[in-house]
Structures are given as structure tokens and as C-alpha cells.
Amino acid sequence: MLRDNARSFLSKNAPIAHLRQLRDTPDSVGFSRKLWKEFAEMGWAGILVPPDYDGLGLGYVEAGVVMEELGHTLTPSPLLATSVVAATALVRSGSEAQKKAFLPRIAAGDLIATLAIDEAAKHRPEKTALKASNKANGFVLSGAKTFVIDGHVADLIIVGVRTSGSPGEERGLTLFLVDGKAKGLKVERTSMVDAHNSARLEFDNVAVAADAILGTPGQGWKTLEGALNAGRAAIAAELLGAADEIFARTVTYLRERKQFGKLIGEFQALQHRAAHLYCELELARSAVLKALQTLDESFENAGAVVSMAKAKAGSVATLAVQEGVQMHGGIGMTDEFDAGLFMKRVRVGQELFGDANFHADKLARLNHY
Amino acid sequence: MADLETFRKETRAWLEANCPAEMRQPPESEEDTCWGGRKWVFKSEAQRVWLERMAAKGWTVPEWPRQYGGGGLSHEEAKILREEMRALGCRSPLDSFGIWMLGPALLKYGNEQQKREHLPKIARGEIRWCQGYSEPGSGSDLASLQTRAEDRGDYFVVNGSKIWTSYADKADWIFCLVRTDPKAPKHEGISFVLFDMESPGVSTSPITLISGKSPFCQTFFEDVQVLKANLVGQLNKGWEIAKFLLTHEREMIGGMGMTGGRHRSLGEVAADTVGTEDGRLADPVLRAQIASFEVDSWAFALTLDRVGDLFKTGQAHPAVSSMLKYYGAELNKRRLELMVAAGGSEALEWEGPRSRDGFTVRSWLRSKANSIEGGTSEIQLNIIAKRILNLPGA
Description:
The complex is a heterodimer. By secondary structure, chain A is an alpha+beta fold. Chain A has helices at residues 2-13, 16-24, 33-41, 60-73, 79-93, 96-107, 220-256, 268-297, 303-328, 339-351, 356-366; strands at residues 113-116, 131-135, 138-149, 156-162, 173-179, 185-191, 197-209, 213-214, 258-259, 262-263. Chain A folds into three domains: 2-111, Butyryl-Coa Dehydrogenase, subunit A, domain 1 (Orthogonal Bundle); 115-218, Beta Barrel (Butyryl-CoA Dehydrogenase, subunit A, domain 2), CATH 2.40.110.10; 222-366, Butyryl-CoA Dehydrogenase, subunit A, domain 3 (Up-down Bundle), CATH 1.20.140.10. Chain A has eleven helices and ten strands. In chain A, a hairpin with a 5-residue loop joins β6 (185-191) and β7. Chain A starts with a helix and ends with a helix. In chain A, 54% of the residues are buried. The termini of chain B are far apart. In chain B, 43% of the residues lie in helices and 15% in strands. In chain B, strands 1-4-5-8 form a four-stranded mixed beta sheet. In chain B, a hairpin with an 8-residue loop joins β6 (202-207) and β7 (216-227). Chain B contains eleven helices and ten strands. The radius of gyration of chain B is 22 Å and the shape is globular. Chain B has helices at 2-18, 45-57, 75-88, 97-109, 112-123, 238-254, 266-274, 284-312, 320-343, 359-367, 377-388, and strands at residues 129-132, 148-151, 155-166, 173-179, 190-196, 202-207, 216-227, 231-232, 276-277, 280-281. At the A-B interface, α7, β10, α8, α9 and α11 of A face α7, β10, α8, α9 and α11 of B.
């Protein structure tokens, strides 16, 4: 039901042509605020927000369905950063006042929120160095963040901050809620390969009040991991959708394109590769579904299965776009054709919140080897 | 749901009370897995008791109907039983081709008399079955088989030879594909028959594999008489049953390495042999390969569960068994390549108690057949391309 609705809505209102238009006629936003308002009217913006705060109060499986469908159409939207990652952090660790202040506005589509965690080119959240110093009635933040999804338009930024210990340690992290327009915050929008949205942030003694802390000071790791895991499972669902879409298009092409007087799908060299990819996609589907279900059923214990799913979805989607371009031949290399757009988005999704190597390594550590 | 929770609690309690401690240890040799049959010699009293108790509940074949020796469990209940057995580390009480392959085929295609005669004996582990499919000249092109059965009124006379007959020398009965109409197109002249391996004219000759073991035989039939009551389904319609049964064989091979007691993980084995630095394997390349394998292995186990559920509700494409066979076989080969690599020179010992007579190295060699038996990996990819992806000319 949700899937059918999402699919028909997105294919009508935000097909791949929508992404092309955003890319080719750049504005200061990078997604359609009108479309986002429609997402909110359908309840998607508040899909994880409890009904007490005006949301739908659905689970990660349902959020994953919408993310997967967004993967089919490559639609840029604040859903991932605002409605999955930031909403998860606020719902699970926000004070009552914080929840009241932000969650209804997220559900209404009136507040763009995000998480600022990465500080270097590769995702290593424990290496957070951005620091907080005590100041009268609060703190000042100094440091820099990168790869902040929707960071250029975010009204609310959840910032991972080192309040004690040293980079590399999970202890000593604190999450702060920072206004996107805060004084001393320098925002540089980064134009990315996938034409989706991201920014670099510089914190030059940004003053925040004492009540801007989300959760317990120095104990932010658990909240952070929870929000990241929600984001990882959601992006894995988007990667699965993108991989399914490029695969379906590729198989159709194999059934239509003729060379040497034959349909190229008759060639066993291509048949076996397509059949192998089909199997990989089925494994990725099982992995993503289980990760989302585990977040719903046992949120605190989802770390391992989420890492497995992010690793699997990332590497399978990478294979799917590589095979997609190769099997389409020359036309797959043209900008006019869509295959390249899938390749670009998948590469960004693979990198976001840890790539397949990061998550395979994490799984190995969890299994003590 | 409440009923299922009750079932889970009762099942756990029963397993705790009835599964002997020895049967909760991972199998260490082939004899640790009970295959049953007239010739079976129980390795221990615990193995015998465990089979007897499970068979009495019908839990050697949990989902078969009770009147044929099964447990009469629903798919959900059977899943709970499997989960609880896994949680306690219980070994399977009985593994057999009767359970995995012939039983499902008889339930679907057998007549009432055949079901009553054969299914309970499979469930209790009294009769061990082997499969007469491949022939020396018919491997991947199975339907070209030449073993013929001539109509002599009340019975057929069977002549010919089968190859790769798993455990034919240990089996009591065989389910066998024979050509009953040599003039018909190759798929349309095949019948599916059952007969006792002690029938006059049946002989077997073990084939030694690269693992040094002989799990397979060549089997010869010389004027073997088979009563017509032992024809399953209709005359000359055996190919349909053969294909149905192959899907079960493929699921079985695909599921290998996923069931049974707890195995030592690759990470544990490698930690012993290559050592660790800061909690990580000292060989970072091997570590990466193991981690990547574990990602795939977990995703595959989840796929077996998910697709298994879809099968039971009729929502799965019938050809997805080819996916399970293909991926499971390749994965098991990968697992054993890594196991040998992780084991280093210790894993290369062929004989002696330290290596349990070369358990690892022989398993590694044996696994190479996984992508050949039951239809090669290439045949499975052909089937997926043709039947699921609808690619042309496949």
C-alpha cells in the first residue's frame, strides 16, 4: 500500500527528469520545497515522529519503503537527514522541550534538520575533534564538519562534539543542537557528483546555550550510533531501490538491443552476469529488510545487522551500476541516458555513513577478529 | 501468536529435557551425522536415543502429515523448532535424501499406498534412499539418460548404469529415472521408479574422490525386476517429478553450511593461527576476506529464511531454488577456501587424530563438487536467466 502509493506519487511528481532539472537549473536549495511540503502532507516527513508530536509514528520498515522508492527515482529530498537521522536522534534522546520544539515542525515539513559528524574524507565518527569550551551560560564550538547532508539549508544541525577524551575514543562525545543561522557558523555548499545536497561547515567560536545539549554530556556515542544506524539502514534501502531500478533497465535492454543479428541477451556471457547480479540483489534485499526490522524490534541491538546490510547493499549497488553501464555499452556513458545518474548516486550512498569496507571492518570487530 | 509463544516454550523445554548433551556438540566427523537405514551403525547410544525421541514426535520431518510419520507442524511452528534447535546447538537427528528429496516428491506425486509404505520408514530412519539420476553420458544434460525399463506386464526390467549415486553402497532403496519410451522426445519418455537395492542384478562400485573419500558410486542394473506398483506418477511423465525433486536437492545443497550444530567461525580459527594485534587478525588481507565472506554469508542465511517463507505461501518464483543452489554452493566453496587459508599448514594434514583425519582439508576438497552436483553453477545461472529474467534464447 505505502509502496504502491510512494511509487505512483514519485513516478508522477518526481521522476528522474526532476533530478535533471534541479541539476541543470541550479538554485540555492537543491531540492523542491514544494515537493517536500507534499511529502509532509502525505505524512512522510514525520514518518518516524510519534503521533504525540504530530507524526505518523510508523517504523523503520516503512521509512525504508519510502527510501527504497526514492532510490528508483533518484529524488533529492530532506527525508534521509531530517526525517530519519535527525528525527531518530530527537525522538530517542531529546528532552520533552526539545521534542516539542522540533518534532512537530519536522512532521509539518517546516524544519530541515541534519547531523554533522564527519570531519575528514572518510567516515570515522569516533575521530571527532570539533571541540566545545565552557563559556558563561553555555559553550562555544570550534572546528569543522564535512559531508553534512542538506547542511546548506538546515535550520537545525545536530553536531557531534568532543567534550572530553581525545579523537579516536567513543567516550567524551556530546551532541549539540545548533541553529543553522548561528553566529560564527560558516556554511559552504558543496556541489557533489550526484547533484544531491551537502555542505562543509566551519564553527568559529559558535556560542550555544547549555540546554542545547541532546542527551547526556559526554555520553553522546550511543545516541549518535543510533541515529547513524537509522541513517545507514535508510541509505541501504535507497541503494537497494537504485540497484533494482538500474538492473531492471539493464535486463530490458538485454531483451531489446541487437548486435551480430541477435538480441544481446542471447549471449551467455551477459546472461550469467545478469543472473549473478539477480542473486546478489536478492541477498541485499534480505539484508536491508532484516536491518530495518531489527531497528523496529530491538533498536539497541541493530548495530551488527545494520553494518552487514549497509556493506552488502553498498557493494551490490556498486556492482549493479557498473554492470548497468557496461551492458548498455556506449549509450550508458552518455549524459543523456540515465545509467550514469544511478552510478553517481550509488557512489555517494556507498560513502555516506561508512562504506562497505568500514562496515565489514566493524562487523569483524564486533565478532572479535 | 500466543499459541506460537506457548509452542516455543514447550519446544524449548522438551529439547532441553530430551536432547542428550553429546548431541549438542558440533559434528566432528561424517559419522556424527545420522543417516539411518538398515546398515546404519549408531556411533553412540546418544545418537540412537536422539533419533528415537525425535522420530516419536515426528520431528525428523516436522512438516509432514502425522499419518505418514511427520510432526504435522505448521510452517511457523517448524521454523520455531529449527530456531530452538539452533539456539541449543542440537544436531539434526537424521539427515537423508528420503527427507530432503524423495519425501516431498512422494507427498506430491505418490499414491496413498506408496505414501503409507515409504514415508514413515523415512521419518524413522529405517530405510536409507539414494538417487539414481546422472549417468556416465548424461551429466548436465540429464534428460538424455539411457537407463531403460522395459514393460513385462506386472513389472519392468531395468538395464543400465547410474553414476554419482551418493552413498549407493550404504543405501537400502533407490529412486531412479529410467527411459520407458525410447522413441519419444527425450523429456517425454522418462519414468520415475523405486526399487530395493538388494534386488537381484543391482551392484555398486564406489568412486574415490579427490578428498580420498567415496561418497559416490557407479551403480549397475542388469535385468533388475521392478514391480509396477513402484512406478511413481504416470508412465513417461517422470521428468516433471525429476525437476520437482531437483528443486529440493538444490535447496538442500544451497542450505549446506547453514544448518547443524555450531561451527567454529573463520575468525576464531584465524585468530588461533595468524594471531591478533590490537584485537584484529594480524593478517589484514585475510581478515578483510573473512569479513566480506561473513557479510555475504549472513545475507544468504537471511535469504534462505525469507525465500523459504515465500515458498510456503506460494509467492516465490519456482526457479529461485536455482539461486539458492548457485549462491549457497559458491559460498560454501568460499568458506572452505578461507578455512584452509586460515588453518595454514595445520589444515593440510591428511590423516591422524590431530586433524581428525584431515577433516578440514577433505571438506575443502569435497566442497568443490557443490557447484557441480545437482546441476552446475552454470546450469543454475542458465535457469535464472531463462526463467526469472526472461532473457531470450537461454
